[in-house]
Structure formats: structure tokens, C-alpha cells
Design brief:
Chains A, B, C, D, E, F: It comes from Hydrogenophaga laconesensis. Chains A, B, C, D, E, F: It is an enzyme of class 3 (hydrolase). Six copies of one chain form a homohexamer. By secondary structure, chain A is of the alpha/beta class. Helices cover 40% and strands 8% of the residues of chain A. In chain A, strands 2-1-3-4 form a four-stranded parallel sheet, with helices on both faces.
Chain lengths: 259, 259, 259, 259, 259, 259
């Protein structure tokens, strides 16, 4: 039991022993419950962020805390928007509070390395605020450091070049598209319906946003660019690179500079 | 894929179809990350509330939303208290906000039946406030009704008599004791360390609480009464009764009285 | 004037002298403005919590701070619910804030012993959060300790046996019933209308709650179990025991364990 | 019982009958727990606001809700400041929340006239915000109107001329001075210690405020101008005028202009 | 560039040098966007508070931070009320938060003297709360002191006597009247429309407030007393006195008393 | 006076007339007080966002509301970070609240078109939340629509190609670099110190963030990439294109699709 990476499967006694002996990094995945087209499940962002967190934890002797499964409100340009049935989001204050509390609690455990693994683009700035408020609560002497990352930022141009032989179109429209679909085919193939891939996209957005959102800007499927070309091999390639490079970042990133 | 009870495994298209066709109840499990002695994992409350939610959902054609895995702060008399390493809790405002947001979002989906399945005693009143604020936001014409329950309240005296042949000592000290341990042996036997059962308890508390908490009131193991006598058969008996009776409650409880 | 237990009747000079000389406990009663059937006044919870606080303070040389007269929202199973005219409640955040502020302020006075005397079941968890946040604000070096109690928990089985010769039915439905009515007959007989005692109850509730609340679950009178058999003698018996045992708790409960 | 003005002494049945039959104004006194020199009690502001509210209610067939006994933080120029032992205040958010909740709840009762009777200068703007937010919550169709007043604004120049034969020095330094002391001698003579009247004041303040407050600006007694000359006759004169004129205001002030 | 008083025109390098070398006071003007009759612009309160802040800063070697241009909600008796088109206000929590953040940030810069220059009557108490919370966040050892002032309190009776040869009617109705109009004629003559001066006022208000506000209490022009007699000479006289006396206050007010 | 674009220079009467007659768009600039290297002033983001807002308003008959001058906390990768003296930021809740209030107030005026012109990258997601909460407060029937934009998104690849003859390096490190410096040379040449241009950058950041921030990642000057090559001609080119294209967006973007 004690070699699991999943923190919620450890007894407190085992967890405490790990913390005191190894100062392990704890990875906190943050996802969303958000439409991902007809071919991917609502929980895609949480499933992927926890999967890469687990792979990374296995490489660095880390633990994975329970995923925050509800993310910030979906926006048309990055997630399709809040008008889709099934998308279930939280207000900024809720997500900020959840992260703030987590920072405070993990510091109380004596942890020194917390890694927040974001899998939903819209979450980023509320994670930042939650971390900032949590560290402010702890005061200047706290031993806990926090790393925050979006997992896709660990994909290299080389690998993206392999995945997109015709050229990587950029992360902007990568919602329920090749990257996520391939990684889901790698991690959770039974949850992907390749027979239902829509042909929508790429969506074309103006350089501004409108509120209430213009639902007519978004394809009815919720997919912003095509997932054609996705396969599990690409998914493994991406997943391996992300986990390997995240592990390297964790290995070196917590060392404070000499003062 | 579409016969799963897990909402996060459904695409939005499948979810929407289910909602529009069946008006299924959605069950939202709420747990905690909290010490449960040396023999049970930190995630026990979330694991059990989601397991009984899934069993119940299967009986009523319902769905299970992603678990809220972090609960309100552990109190000495019911969960041992916040001084244990590994217990990772949230402030009242965070939990209230999470539930408030969920109520608002599920109503937007067109859902009429939301069931909040609580597995952590300390959560109860903050769930109540979250539901109340969410329904207030929706206004008087909302079609969504919310059922809130603590799953152990569905255990009957008869069954408890069977589980405790020497007499049921009451729910007060049932933290990491026979009920939870037996149900974990039923649902997640690999996560239970029966070889590490402590002999602590029953704890004896005065009729008041002190803050900062008196950690000396609580056994060092975190167990408030003994888990001796736990077994998977008892666990299944309890789990079956809970799921069966929760299903009955859901089948009848959402019917509004004639006005 | 200076021998009063009521803090609001003391000048600040007298209060300061008491605090510096005696380190008296200050008792903060918390009530509600909530329906209590046709025979008891809306202010019952505040009247009773302040009365037992005053009796207790007299025994221990303590002071009683002004009552928090508005409590958390009434729930059908313990107070009848919010649909009764006259019930006047506060949101969780308000009650939490009030207690948090009080903790901070009494600590600033140099007080070491604050006793929060709750007379309204629904308040309990919001008092806990208020205390926790207040103490967090004060930081780890604070000298103030807080005791929180529900006054009815100081009634012993023996006394309850005397009050209920046919067996104590439990606290669950004790709203506007024999305990509260008897204590009101002891403390405030002119405010009790024994001629208007309803015959409702005992109410029978399912093992779950519905929101919006099912008002048809609650007797129209607001009384959850009968107050027949109430009398002032029982009230005095209960009041004396509560005050005596609360005084004992205060006398011993603030001593910190040797470390 | 039913002819009392104190809402907390009425049963909900009697209260509801009054509301439905008479549409009575409900007066909500707001005070403070704040130093008032060595001669007046800490609760002066709550005692006076509830006393004038009760006198007024008796004249207009109104009711008095339980006093909000804790007010906003004392400021040097109007109440001496927060550094006095015994002064026990709340944050702005707490007072705002309390009033917001009250507005919402009294509207739910079917009430049309709520009168907030302020007895602590520092409260004023937070009462305004609480009322505004409460009415915003109710929406544009609400039937409840709210009157807010500081009771001393109902004293006429003629009466102030009688009370101060050498000329009324203005309300600015009237903290624990002639007006409050005289009214306390009228309403609560046993709580006034005329033998302890300090000779401090009038205090002299610059046209700005400093934070942290300059405690050396405030006389050590906490009294900003002398209470010499206070007597119960003056107190009754003031109290009668205030109650009479408040009653007139309530009688006419709730009539909406023809549109 | 470096001799400007406007902080937003300095580079961070120049600002830091000023702070470290001179410990300059930083003045933070707070205004409103609020109707000021047909003859004055909506931004009058911000324009005047920043103008007097700049004049004062020039005298004391201080800096002026960017104005908070949105103030607390306009009230009928002091600003006409929220029903005027163009009045654009913030909730209490927003203004409190803005000031709290500013206090914390200026303290981080190493600043010791912050002067909050209020130009909108309704702001006062929310500025007080913001300062209090900011200083509480900083803790007892902070070096930053805050001065808060309403600029009109620096006008002397002598000068007011000159400006109002028939007697100063008091500040109560001075909204868009002689003082503000004269000062605007001094500072921003092109923004004043003397040809549009209304003849309204003085308004006559009862000694209480009603909510929702009685818009019929307020002249349709929004002017509470006449601005007849305003001229730039009077404006300069007032502006000079205010700046001179504010400068004196800043020069002496930050010296802490010997302990 | 009435042909000004600055809302705060209009009387309420003129503003109301404009709103009722023309339904003008109101542009709300949002900036920051943040280090911009030794050569640009702290207020750069507010100065630029208000300048492009004014240019745009002049083209579309719009108005410019007072700038929100304090932005969200500076991050190392986009603004250098909070450790620079002079950077003066607000918490998320403050910025969210300010925008929420603005949305509500402009809707009350009868406005239908609000354009939030962001000039500080870190603000974006808190503006989104503020808009969302404000529109939620207004309810589904509101006539106000909100456009939100970052002004640099209106620069076309062609123009960026002209400005960067060696290739546009991307917006990521464009803090106090060629784009901002050129635009400041166009709009506010006296506030730019070209003699102090640092040679720092381009900064090189890892694909994650650390908290507390790693100040050693950021050049000591605060400049993330060189501003060499900036000139006023480029600034005008950029400014003209931004204003022209923003004007086009406003002209067409508020038309709702036929339903």
C-alpha cells in the first residue's frame, strides 16, 4: 500500500513517515468538468492532469493529492463556454479559496514542495491568486514552496512537430483536439469515441470577447479545432515527455538560489 | 460508455441526452482528506461516499458527479482534529462556495434532482448553507430540488444490531471504527491494514469543546473507538442497506406534495 | 454596580479592573429569534442561553457579554424551518464573522477565558468556524482559550430520567418541548402560555433533508414534540444542574495540560 | 403578553397576527459595547437605543427587535478609540452582513416598515450599506421600506438650549457627556456613577485622523467632554422629545409619494 | 521628470530613490464619479482631491498616487443619491478592499507616510475600515502610518467667513455648491458652466433617511444648495488655505509621541 | 465641454443626454501601477490603455470612463513581479469587485455598450470574473453588453512586421519593451527616458512558476526584453492601427446575432 502515489490511499501514519523521511513533492492536479466535444468525456481535464501528475510522481518519489475536479468557468475561446450542458464550474472565489486552503494545510504537514498541476486553461490566474494568498497567510518564514504549471507547457517543439507533421497550429484552439484526444487515447482509451469525432474547426475568433458570450462563435459540437489525426502513440509520446520534463523541473526547481 | 454512472466519463452530448430524456438524479459525494487511524487511508470519507453514491446511482439510473475530496476541518470529537499530519481541510467559506456553485450549475443543466451524499460528519452544516445560498441565487421558480444526506443515517437499527452483537455504541465515536472499516473492507480491501488496528478507545470527551483543541483528549492513533470486529461481510451488509434505502429515498423524496 | 454579572452594565474601568485582577471567564450567550410554538416566545434560545450563562457566571465569578440574539437559519428537523413568520436568522458568514470578531476583541482585552454558550442547535458549526478563524487571526502565541458548549449537554441522564419519567426521547425533537418549556417556566414564567400548548408531535422525519424544505413535514404549530408535562420545578432542576456543571467545567477546563 | 413591544417576548403566532393585522413598524436598535468613561456602562449605546425604540414603539403600536449589541470600531474623535479595555467591536463586513440579513428576513415576514434606530455614531455608514445590499437582494418589487435614524437627530434646538443653558457645544464631542449621561439617569439611574464623573474635556482634535490611532489625543478617562450638569430631568426631557418626534416620523415617513 | 509630484509619471527607479532618500509622504486622492448638478462635471470629487493633493505635495516634497476615481454610493442628503444618471459608485467591500490593498503595498515599498485625501463625503467610513484592515494585515511592527482627511476640514472659519459674507451655512448641503464650484473655477475653469447654475436649494431634509431613497427629496438638478456667488478668487483662497494647512499637518502629524 | 471623450468632464445632464440620444459606447481603461524599467513610468499601463481608449472613443462617438489605475499583482514572467519598489497592486477580489460594480452601474445608466480596455496582462481573468458576476447580478434581461479586450491584440502581423524588421519575438516578453516604449514615445514622449534604456533581455524562463517568486529570474532593471529600436513613429503606427481596429470592432461587435 505504501508505494502508491495516491495520497488519499495512504494512512496518515504512512503519509507522515513519507513526509518526514523524504520530503516528497506533493502534486495537486486541478481539472474541470467541462464539455470536450462528443468524443471526449466531461472530466478530461481532471483525468489528464491527474494522470500526468501520477506519472511524474512515480519518477520523483512524489505523491498525488486528490484532484480538484471543478474548474473555473469555461470561456468560448478556450473551452467553448458555459452554455454547454454538463460544463460545471466554480466562481473565482471558490477556486481561489480551495487553493489557498490547500497551501496552508500542506505547509502545516511540514511539506516543503507543492506542485500544482493545472489541466484547464481557465484556472491559471485563480490558482496564482490562491497560492499568493496562502503564502501570505503563512508569512515570510514559511518553508513551503509552490510550483505551478500547465502540463502542456512541457511539450517541446520537437515533439509537437512529430505530432503535427503539417505544423503545430498553436495551443490557442487546442480544446478537445489532437493533444487532449491523443493523451486520452493513451491514458483512457475506453473513454474516447473516435467514431464521433466532429469535423468542426478551426474556430475563428475576433481579437475581443463579448459578454454575455456569443454562443454562435463556437461550433455546436464544442470542438474548437479538429481532433483528426489523434492516436494513442502520439498520446504516449506526449505523456512521456511531459512526465519526464516535469520530473526534471521538480528535481531542480525547488532549490533556492544562494543568497 | 454511456451506461456508466460516473458523470465525468460521459461526453457532454451523452450527459445532455440523459438529462433531457430521463431527468436522472445526480449524486454529488462529499468527503474529506482526514486521518482515519493507521489502518484506513486518508481518503476514506471520499471513497465511501462515492462508493455508496455509485451503488445507489446504479439502482436509480442516476449519475455520480466528481467527489468533493476536501472537507471541513476535522474536530477532535468526531474526526480526531486538525493536528494530525495528512488531514487536509478547507475553510467553511470554501466548502459553502463549492456547493453553492454546484447547485447553480446543475440547475443550469436543466437537472431537477441533486443528491448531496455526505461522508464526513464535519461537512454537514456547510453543505446546508451552500445549498441554501445556491437555491437563493436561483430564485423561487427553480425546478431543481436538492436532497442532502449523511449516508450512515440509512443504516437501520436491525442491521446495526447485526453488526454490533454487543449493542451499537452509537455514531458519536464512529470514526475509523467498525462501520467505516467494514465498509472499506467491502469496497477497497487492499487499502485496509487490519494488521495495524489500534486498540484505542472508546475515547471519553467532556460535554464541551476547547479551542485551541486539546490534542491530549484524542488517542495518538486518531482512532476514537476500536475497529475490532470489522469484516467485509458486515461491510457489504451495511453498504447494501445504505444503497437500497438511499435509492428508495431518491425514488420517492423528490415528489413535491400537492399544494 | 460592580457585582453584576452583566458586562454591558460595567464601566470600562470596572471591567478592566476585573479582567486584570481576576482573569474572569466571560460567557457569550448565542441564541436565535425563532419560532418556538404558540406557547413560547421567539427569543427563547437567547433568553435561556443568557439565563444559564448568568447563573453560571454567578458561581464562577464570571461575566456575561451581550447575547448574540440572531442565530443561524432554522432547519425543519431541529427548529421547524425558515418558513415561520417571526423566525429571523442570519447567513453563515454573518454568524462566523460575529464570533471571529468577538474572539479577537476579547483577546485584546487581555482575557484568557471565553465561554461561548450556545442555545440554538443550528448555530454550532458556525460558532466553531468563527472561533477557529478568530484564533488563527490571533496567531499561535495567543493567551485566550475558548470553550464552546451547548448548554443542554450538561444535563445528566439521571436528571433527564427525573424529568421524563416515561423515558427521555432524546434531544433530536426537543424544540419548544419539555426541556425548553420547563426552563422558560423557571426563568420567565410570564412569557409562557401553558394554555396554548399544542398536541403536535412527535414529528417523524425521513433520514434525509430536502431543499427547498418540505414545510409539510413540520407541524403547523412549529412544535416537534409535545411540551405536556413541563413545569417550573423541572425547569429549576435542569437549570441548576446545567449551571452547576458548567461552572465545574469552567473551573477545570481551561487548565492546559503540562507539556 | 401580547401587548409587549419586545418582539422576542412574542410567540410567532402572536407576532404573525400583529404583522398581518396591523402592519406594525419594527424598530431594530443598534448599539455598541464601548467605553463610556468611568461613570457610564459599556452597554450605553445599546441601552439607550433600545430604550428610545421601546418608548417610540409604545406610541406607534410598533415592536422592538433584539438589539444589535456590538457596533463598529470606536474612533478616537467620537468614541475614544479601540484601545480601551472593554470596547468590543465588529468589522464592517460583520455589521453590514447582520443588517443585510435582517432586512431580508423582515421582508420575508411580510413586514412593510423597518426602523433602524442607531445609538452609536460609528455604525451609520455600515448600516446604510447593509440596508442597501438587503434591498438589492429583495429586488425592485419589495414592499419593505427601511427608515434609518440616529436618535439624537430628533432633539430640537429648543430642547438642546434648555439642556445646555450656556449653549449647546454640538454633537461632535458628545460621547459619555451630558446628553448620554442624562438619558441614562432617566432610563437606568442605577447604572450611572455620578460620583465618578471625570473633569476631562473638551477634547481638542486636529482636522485629520492618524492610524494607528494616537491614543494620546484622547483623555485617559475616555470622556471627550464633561458630563457635569447631567440630570434625570434633562434626560427625560430629551427622551420624551426623541420618542415623540420619532413616532411622528414613523407615522408619516413611510407614505410613498404619489407617482 | 523626477521633480513631478505624480507618482505614475516616475519610473520605479526614481520612485525607489525618492522613497529611500527622502521618506516622502505619498498622498492618495479618493474621489467619486457622481452628479454635481448641471454646471460641474461628474468627476468633480476626484479632480478636486487630486488637485489639492498635488498642491500639498509640492509644498512638502510629497508624491501623489493615482486617484481612486470611483467612490461609495451617493446618498440623497450629501450627494443627491444613486438615481442620477452618470453617478457610478462602488460597494463598500470594493472601496474597503482597494484601500486595504494600497496600505499593504505602500508599506512594502518602505514608505512611512501615507496620506489619504478624501474628496467625497460618502467615502469616509469605508476608508477608515480599509486603513484599519490594512494595518491589521501589516501587524504591530509596521513602520507605515496613515493620515486620513477630508480636505474641506482644513478650511478655517475666517476663510469661510470671507467666502460666505452672509454667513457660512455649514458643510451639510455643500454639494455642487459655492465651495466646490469656486474651487473648480480655480482649478478647472473650462469644466464649469456658470451659465447653467440652477437656483435650487437649500434642500430641506427630515432627521432620518428612507430606503429605497426618496428621490423627491432631492432637487431635480441634483444641487442641494445654490452655487450663486462662486468665483475663482474664492476658489484660490480656499485651495491655498487647504494646501497650506494640509502641508502643515503632514509636516507635524506623523511624529509619534515620545513613549 | 460636451464634445470631450472624458466622461468625468461631463456634467450628469450632458452625460444623460448623450446616453439617451446616442447610446454611445463607454470605454473603461484598466491599467496598473507597475515597474516598467528605468525608462518608462510606473503608470505606463494606465496611460496607454486610456490613450488608446480616447483615440478609439473619438472615432466612434464614445466616452472614456475614469481609468482603473491599480491592477492585479505583477508576475515575474509578464511584469517582473511584486518585489519591485513602486509596483502597487490589488488582490483579485478587489479588481473583480471594482469591475462587477462598474458593470452594474453602467447598466443602471441605461448604457448598452461597455468596452473594457485592458492594458495590463495580469488583469485579464479578473476582469472576466468581474464582468461575469456583474452580468449575473443584472439577470438575463439586461440590455448591457460588455466587450473586453487587450489593446495589443489589435496589432496586425503586418504592422508588427514593420515594427520588428528582424521578426516579432512575440508578446510574451513585451514588458517595457519596443511596443510599450514606442507607444509611450508617441503619446507621452516627456515621460520616456531613452538615455536610460537597459540592455537586459530577452529573459529566459522555465515552463513553470515558483512561489514565492524567484526574483533572480528577472533582470534587475525589470525589463524582460530590450526596448532598443523604439521610436515615436512606430508608436504612432501601432496606436493608429489599434484605435482604428478597436473602432471597427466596437462598430460591429455589439450587434447581436439574429435568433
Amino acid at each position: 500500500m505504501t508505494d502508491t502515489v495516491w495520497m488519499n490511499q495512504l494512512s496518515w501514519v504512512d503519509y507522515q513517515a513519507r513526509v518526514q523521511r523524504d520530503q516528497p513533492p506533493v502534486l495537486l492536479p486541478v481539472g474541470a468538468l467541462e464539455q470536450h466535444g462528443p468524443h471526449l468525456p466531461l472530466g478530461t481535464d481532471g483525468l489528464l492532469s491527474s494522470a500526468v501528475a501520477a506519472d511524474t510522481a512515480a519518477r520523483v518519489g512524489g505523491l498525488v493529492a486528490p484532484t480538484l475536479s471543478y474548474g473555473y468557468k469555461s470561456q468560448p475561446k478556450c473551452g467553448g463556454g458555459q452554455h454547454f450542458c454538463g460544463t460545471t464550474s466554480v466562481d473565482a472565489a471558490t477556486l481561489i479559496g480551495q487553493v489557498r486552503d490547500a497551501v496552508r494545510e500542506f505547509a502545516r504537514h511540514g511539506l516543503t514542495k507543492l506542485v500544482i498541476v493545472n489541466g484547464h486553461y481557465e484556472n491559471q490566474w485563480f490558482l496564482i491568486e490562491g497560492i499568493d494568498l496562502g503564502l501570505r497567510d503563512l508569512g515570510p518564514g514559511a518553508k513551503l514552496q509552490v510550483m505551478r504549471l500547465e502540463y502542456w507547457d512541457f511539450m517541446t517543439p520537437d515533439t509537437l512537430g512529430d505530432v503535427f507533421p503539417d505544423g503545430f497550429p498553436g495551443f490557442a484552439l487546442e480544446h478537445a483536439a489532437v493533444l487532449e484526444t491523443s493523451m486520452m487515447l493513451h491514458y483512457h482509451p475506453s473513454l474516447v469515441r473516435m467514431d464521433l469525432l466532429p469535423d468542426d474547426g478551426p474556430a475563428d475568433f475576433p481579437p475581443y470577447d463579448m459578454y454575455p458570450p456569443r454562443t454562435d462563435w463556437v461550433p455546436a459540437s464544442g470542438v474548437l479545432s479538429s481532433a483528426r489525426g489523434s492516436d494513442a502513440t502520439k498520446g504516449r509520446l506526449l505523456a512521456d515527455e511531459v512526465a519526464r520534463r516535469m520530473a526534471e523541473a521538480i528535481a531542480s526547481g525547488f532549490e533556492r538560489p544562494a543568497v
